[in-house]
Amino acid sequence: IPPLQSSDVHWLRRVVKSYQCVGFGVAIEVSSALQAKLYATLLRPEWIRLAPGLIDAGTVSALHSLDVKAVSSCVERVATHAHCLSTGLDIVQGFYYDRPSGDF
Fold first, then answer.
1. pLDDT value of residue 94
2. Rounded to an integer, what distance in angstroms lies between the CA atom of residue 56 and that of residue 16?
3. I need a labelling partner for 99 at 20 to 30 A (CA). Which of 48, 77, 78, 92 fits?
4. How far apart are CA 32 and CA 44, in angstroms?
């Protein structure tokens, strides 16, 4: 689910639960650490995706305590990658690992 603009948490909960009821895992992209903790608590997705600048060990720990995995995208530099790993992040995505290619 892309960054959520709706303030209707009850509607968002229904959307997440409807996906989960048919067997899908749900990832929610958030725009702040506070939003990550709030949505993890209220919506219980499987993953929360944070931008590298939002990642800290406290947020990751809070997500883990709720059985939510923490994911980061847009990781492109060695320092950003090292920071993400030092916080206990579960999944790291980005061009740090490889650039997209037209060759398969």
1. 87
2. 25
3. 48
4. 17
